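Obj.: predict assembly geometry.
Materials: sequence records (below).
Method: joint structure prediction, all chains together.
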Amino acid sequence: MLLVAPENFLLFAPLLPEAASGTIEPRHAVIPLREMLRRTQLLVGEVTSIDLESRTAVAEDLTGAKHEISWAQLVLSPGSVPSVIAVPGLKENAVGFKTLTDAIWLRNRVLRQLETADATLDPVRRRELLTFTFVGGGYAGVEALAEMESLVSDALHTYPSLSRQDLRWVLVEARNSLLPGLDPKLARYTEARLRRRGVEILLETWLESCVDKKVVVSAPGVEPYVSDTIVWATGQRPSPLVSGLGLATDEVGRLIVDDQIRAIGRSDVFALGDAAAVPDPDGGICPGTAQHAVRQAKVCAQNVAAALGAGQPTTFTYRNRGLAVTLGRNQGTAQVYRFTFTGVLAWLMGRSYHLLMMPGLARKVRVVADWTTAMLFPRDLSQLGSLGRRAPLE
Ligand SMILES: Cc1cc2nc3c(=O)[nH]c(=O)nc-3n(C[C@H](O)[C@H](O)[C@H](O)COP(=O)(O)OP(=O)(O)OC[C@H]3O[C@@H](n4cnc5c(N)ncnc54)[C@H](O)[C@@H]3O)c2cc1C
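Observations (raw structure tokens):
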């Protein structure tokens, strides 16, 4: 069994917003693959091409060397990548929120902005430094914004020269509500909570441009403004690895699979997660969530084993049980079947669920220790952005 992965860890993405806000140590949001998969050979690198006819793939390792791999059964789970649409200035000025690097960068950036604003006397420039725009009102955008706002709120009292009036948080969403797929009542609750915390929520609004960090949005009445930090938390598209195979894909480029997670017309190719269009037992296609990807992985593993002669194949029957969204300290929303919860209870439910899903006892214990520490002590506000830049020896 061989796994090709670009990092030697699995990122538990639901904890990414908390890793960004520093509620948990970023390293605790990942699980080392070599520790988790003791009987699997790991090749840290990237699959660059796949040939279905000869059942081979080429992977490039960290040294740049290419490896030709022969496979009997192929499992594709390359996830999604940010789709950068043609918004002027976007590539140059916005950052994504998908990887651990993004989360660590954002935390350091936000804290650095506070320090720079503290040292700035010009009130206009100070406001620009402390204006944060998040584009995308889905789970990633809402949770990331809520956690960062919560971090800054807690940090503010340590900067006597800064006040809430210096801060501006803007959330831009193209649809007419936040958090698609969640009970509309909970989406409205989330919107109200964020607005109460001073977040400007612009619904049915598009980012039109952000050249030189000057944000122009489609909403009438919102004047163009400078936002030093712009987070692009929307527009994911399936990894191009699956669309280039010549197999059937859906309208957004996900590989179409059957209820055994197997690509249409192939007995030896499986696909799951954000890059696959897996039939949802409740109708339609499964949403791109970790809870679905994990269940699809179990079905896929059983079917790969069956294809190799061990055991019987099975079908994907998992039904969505609900969703939880954490909104920073003690706030959240949760939906379990048709029951809805808000506030501290929902926040605790979200945390418990994430803990339950987190693989490995050691990581669970570390996360609980981080949460406990965060409840008992003030936030750690150290800004370690300079760590990535090694000073040259003179
Ligand atoms: C901020 C954030 C918060 C989220 N919160 C939740 C939540 O609370 N609950 C929930 O259920 N879901 C949540 N999700 C969604 C969830 O993370 C995804 O649905 C899930 O990770 C999809 O799993 P996947 O394996 O398909 O893709 P991924 O987890 O993205 O993994 C794909 C992996 O394949 C690698 N890869 C890509 N191309 C190649 C290649 N050519 N060669 C080798 N490797 C490659 C990628 O680098 C990546 O490591 C969240 C997502 C984000 C970004």
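Conclusions so far: The mean pLDDT is 94.
To do: check interface contacts against the pulldown list.
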